[in-house]
């Protein structure tokens, strides 16, 4: 009996010790859904003997709400440009100084002094792309490089459109179509935007983030879309074409950053450095189908990525518009428009 | 010692015992009470407090008292001018949710009552199998069941494929991403909540009363509405409440099947904690929803109470 007890005691001590050892080798990543290359994660796990846990969100705001609620246990988040600025301002990110890390030399200089994190003290590029829309040219073969397709669609596309379920993306598209400025507090102009959106809404079938699924299942023939999602949808529906509307479209960058109070800070820093390695950045791009902002990653990318019309913009396209965070009064107005639209 | 002293001593001993028992009972209950307090009343308290605060700039709250969240529900300030005007946006979201939930309840009733009746009139040894089949969908997560429904009713789903391949339709029925889809999804999700309580009531019915009804020359409809339905009423009411309340706050079903173009209460509340960055208003809307549920329950309690008194 005594031996059995002793054995049990030993076993529990061993179990405790090993679980403690495992806890030391963990990394909790909170990234956008369907946006993390499983291959890249596997490589990181094997290289550093770290167990990676992955969780997903579908909007910057959903991520922020969860992080703000506190005690999430996440180490790494991947916020969009404006959200990085918001989170730095709110003291939610750890200043890990990626600019002093070994692989920082690989970051394309044009992505170093960005307005959301000048000099890169908090974050590094993950993926960057554009938000426009993609159309099935077998259904509609007219001119596609105009936002009129979203707000005044031709008969064949009516009721066959998905919009992003994103307040900023929808309102910004409306503002561009009407030729008004972004982050706009002008009430007369916003009233026009609301009228435009309300008039167009019956022509939209859905408002959802699940772009790829909506397009490939045949639920819709056109969707507001991120360029990488458009490319992934095109792989299954070859007649899709990504539009570069003449009125303008949004540019964005998602960035890898470390949460303040991250339980696995050292592993998180390893991950930041790891993500600046061209081969690893290319793994992410090959999965998510966006450009990555890391020099030298081209040679590890799928050849089709380097010539894809979703990634290589035509010379005639306007420059992507990186939208800065809007002041609270404007957000309040946008909220009201959004609720009116969705009532 | 006199007899009286004995009685006094006995009474004192009994009293002592009773007090001790009460104390023991209290201490034994304490852990459960504490847990109830911690996991139900505390979060509710936080919600109440938050609903009276001012929203923080990027989510969260600032500690400044304000009743704006409740005012905002019916009125809006300064959307395009500075006056306080009536705003029907949130109210219409609530009304649509109530309408859909009521519809789902009635739909579930129409489907659930015959199902429960069918099971209750089966031989006793077969009933368990039927009940098991009713509860079987609960083995699968609600999200997955809802997604399965999406695959069934979508343009290229099973229903439309069969209808189109057999030549009944030339173009697909656009069910998905409409209120109809949400309605179907709600009924499908909550039907077992209707069947089980009705079954529980029907099972207890003495079916010789039904025979007596026929003996007294009642036709089938009369027996149904004058004998069976009144006897099954507690189950019908319980089923109605059990379907109506979760349908009213449903989140996944309208999100997946509704296409995201129109909000239901649940989605509207979720939005306040996300893109809208207005936690106090989200809290207030959640409390208003809860008040609605309480009102439904109160009306039911009053009605059944009056009935009990009337019968007594």
From TrEMBL, chain A:
Presence of the UniProt keyword RNA-binding in the record: no
Transport as a keyword?
yes
- Judging by the UniProt lineage, the source's domain of life is Bacteria
**InterPro entries xrefs:** SBP, Sperm_putr-bd
Keyword annotations of the record: Periplasm, Signal, Transport
Q: Which GO terms describe its cellular component?
A: periplasmic space
Give the signal peptide as a residue range, or say none if absent. 1-23
Sequence positions that bind spermidine: 82
Cross-referenced Gene3D superfamilies, in alphabetical order? Periplasmic binding protein-like II (3.40.190.10)
One of the entry's Gene Ontology molecular-function terms is: polyamine binding
Where located?
Periplasm
One Pfam match, given by its short name, reads SBP_bac_8
GO biological process annotation, one example: polyamine transport
* Record function comment: Required for the activity of the bacterial periplasmic transport system of putrescine.
Its family remark reads:
Belongs to the bacterial solute-binding protein PotD/PotF family.
Official protein name in the record? Putrescine-binding periplasmic protein
Automatic annotation (TrEMBL), chain B:
Keyword set includes Transmembrane: yes
Q: Which residues cross the membrane?
A: 26-53, 93-117, 129-153, 173-202, 223-252, 281-303
* GO biological process per UniProt: transmembrane transport
Does Ubl conjugation show up as a keyword for this record?
no
Which superkingdom is the protein from? Bacteria
Q: How does it sit in the membrane?
A: Multi-pass membrane protein
Q: Where in the cell is it found?
A: Cell membrane
Domain named ABC transmembrane type-1 is located at 94-300
Q: Name one GO cellular component term.
A: plasma membrane
Spell out the family assignment given in the record's similarity comment.
Belongs to the binding-protein-dependent transport system permease family. CysTW subfamily.
User: What is the protein named?
Assistant: ABC-type spermidine/putrescine transport system permease subunit I
């Amino acid at each position: 009996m005594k031996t059995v007890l002793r054995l049990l005691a030993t076993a529990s001590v061993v179990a405790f010790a090993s679980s403690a050892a495992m806890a030391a080798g963990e990394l909790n990543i909170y990234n956008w859904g369907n946006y993390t290359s499983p291959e890249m994660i596997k490589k990181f796990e094997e290289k550093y003997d770290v167990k990676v846990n992955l969780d997903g969100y579908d909007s910057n705001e959903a991520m922020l709400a969860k992080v703000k609620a506190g005690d999430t246990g996440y180490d790494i988040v991947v916020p969009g440009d404006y959200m990085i600025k918001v989170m730095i301002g709110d003291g939610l990110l750890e200043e890990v100084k990626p600019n002093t890390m070994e692989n920082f030399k690989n970051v394309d200089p044009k992505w170093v002094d960005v307005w959301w994190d000048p000099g890169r003290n908090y974050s590094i590029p993950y993926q960057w792309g554009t938000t426009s829309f993609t159309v099935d040219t077998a259904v509609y073969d007219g001119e596609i490089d105009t936002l009129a397709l979203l707000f005044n669609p031709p008969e064949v596309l009516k009721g066959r459109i998905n919009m992003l379920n994103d307040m900023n993306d929808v309102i910004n598209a409306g503002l561009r179509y009407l030729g008004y400025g972004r982050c706009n507090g002008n009430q007369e102009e916003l009233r026009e935007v609301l009228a435009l959106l309300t008039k167009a809404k019956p022509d939209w079938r859905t408002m959802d983030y699940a772009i790829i699924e909506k397009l490939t299942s045949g639920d819709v023939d056109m969707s507001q879309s991120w360029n990488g999602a458009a490319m992934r949808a095109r792989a299954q529906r070859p007649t899709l074409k990504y539009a570069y509307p003449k009125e303008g479209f949004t540019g964005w960058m998602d960035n890898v950053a470390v949460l303040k109070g991250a339980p696995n800070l050292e592993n998180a820093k390893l991950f930041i450095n790891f993500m600046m390695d061209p081969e690893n950045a290319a793994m992410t791009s090959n999965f998510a189908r966006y450009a990555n902002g890391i020099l030298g990653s081209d040679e590890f990318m799928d050849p089709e990525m380097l010539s894809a019309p979703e990634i290589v913009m035509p010379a005639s396209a306007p420059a992507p518009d990186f939208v800065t965070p809007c002041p609270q009064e404007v957000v309040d107005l946008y909220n009201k428009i959004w609720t009116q639209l969705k009532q | 010692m006199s007899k009286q002293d004995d009685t006094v001593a006995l009474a004192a001993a009994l009293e002592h015992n009773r007090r001790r028992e009460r104390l023991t009972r209290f201490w034994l209950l304490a852990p459960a009470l504490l847990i109830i307090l911690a996991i139900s009343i505390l979060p509710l308290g936080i919600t109440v407090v938050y609903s009276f605060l001012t929203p923080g700039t990027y989510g969260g709250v600032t500690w400044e008292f304000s009743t704006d969240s409740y005012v905002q529900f019916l009125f809006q300030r300064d959307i395009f001018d500075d006056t306080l005007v009536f705003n029907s946006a949130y109210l219409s979201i609530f009304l649509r949710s109530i309408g859909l939930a009521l519809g789902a309840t009635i739909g579930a009733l129409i489907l659930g009552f015959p199902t429960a009746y069918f099971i209750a009139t089966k031989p006793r040894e077969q009933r368990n199998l039927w009940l098991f089949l009713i509860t079987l969908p609960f083995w699968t997560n609600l999200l997955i069941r809802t997604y399965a429904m999406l695959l069934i009713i979508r343009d290229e789903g099973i229903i439309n494929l069969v209808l189109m391949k057999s030549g009944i339709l030339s173009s697909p029925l656009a069910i998905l991403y409409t209120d109809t889809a949400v309605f179907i999804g709600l009924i499908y999700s909550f039907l077992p909540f209707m069947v089980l309580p009705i079954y529980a009531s029907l099972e207890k019915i003495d079916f010789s009363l039904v025979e007596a009804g026929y003996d007294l020359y009642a036709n089938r409809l009369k027996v149904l509405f004058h004998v069976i339905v009144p006897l099954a009423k507690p189950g019908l009411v319980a089923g109605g409440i059990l379907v109506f309340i979760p349908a009213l706050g449903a989140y996944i079903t309208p999100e997946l099947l509704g296409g995201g173009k129109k909000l239901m209460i649940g989605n509207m509340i979720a939005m306040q904690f996300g893109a809208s960055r207005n936690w106090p208003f989200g809290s207030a809307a959640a409390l208003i929803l809860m008040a609605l549920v309480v009102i439904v329950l109160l009306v039911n309690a009053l009605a059944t109470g009056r009935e009990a008194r009337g019968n007594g």
